[in-house]
Design goal:
255 residues, two-stranded antiparallel sheet, 74% helix, mainly alpha
């Protein structure tokens, strides 16, 4: 299984090289985008390999390691609709977050080789897929919110895009929670075990974004304050929702 793990490590390395190129000036932007494409492709290959090796069991601990390629794919879609400084800001943000999460997952793989329980319902895949899409979309919400804070002149457009990604991320996150609940009922006829830390933290994050959506719709806080909350949400996801997938340190690129 080490060769599968090396695909994830290569993806993290490509994200890191892309981030370095994106900060190297205008000449590095094209290289950064190409490296983002390659990193996303490697991450997608890693996800496919994990599923192939584990089937018909469900692969464990993909919440962190599977996030970079999903973030990369959504980031590439977001970049096509933007121009100028905001595009560069988003490119850098996607590459940095992809590298940070990928590197953490590479050195803290947490029982990397173990499959989880048997895949007995399509809702098992909904739990993981919508969860990854939700986290990635909320990361993009935070990146656009950071762009609004960093460049007040483009703040209105960045705020609008941040709210758009917030709505998508919240919808995906909700579908993930429902998928997990339906998986439990379809598989074992029992509800979700709420004593599990990852379930509790997923709900805590969901309620955080309920509050953020409320603030956007009611305009109770100023636009910069709402943007700051969206940026803080990135850290919340990293700690509460990627954290449970991380375990003891494992040296990278070990054979």
């Amino acid at each position: 299984m080490n060769e599968v793990r090396h695909i994830a490590e290569l993806s993290a390395l490509l994200f890191g090289l892309g981030a370095a190129a994106a900060f190297a000036g205008r000449r590095g932007v094209a290289a950064a985008r190409m490296l983002l494409v390659l990193a996303t492709a490697c991450g997608a290959a890693y996800l496919g390999a994990r599923y192939w090796r584990a089937w018909p069991m469900t692969p464990m601990f993909l919440g962190a390691a599977g996030l970079p390629p999903v973030l990369g794919a959504l980031g590439l879609a977001a970049l096509r609709r933007q121009d100028g400084a905001q595009r560069l800001f988003v490119l850098r943000g996607v590459l940095l977050l992809g590298f940070a999460v990928g590197a953490l997952a590479a050195v803290f793989p947490k029982d990397f080789y173990l499959p989880f329980i048997k895949t007995i319902s399509p809702f098992a895949h909904a739990l993981l897929a919508f969860g990854l899409l939700g986290r990635a979309a909320l990361f993009l919400c935070g990146i656009h919110a950071a762009a609004a804070l960093a460049a007040p002149g483009a703040g209105e457009d960045a705020q609008r895009r941040a709210f758009s990604w917030l709505a998508r991320g919240f919808a995906f996150w909700t579908l993930s929670l429902f998928g997990g609940e339906l998986w439990c009922y379809a598989g074992w006829g029992t509800p979700v075990v709420w004593e599990d830390a990852s379930i509790i933290t997923a709900m805590a994050t969901w309620f955080f974004y309920v509050g953020l959506i409320h603030l956007h719709l009611t305009r109770s806080w100023s636009a910069p304050a709402r943007a700051a909350m969206a940026v803080a949400g990135v850290g919340l996801i990293l700690v509460l929702n990627c954290g449970p997938d991380l375990g003891p340190f494992h040296p990278p690129f070990s054979w």
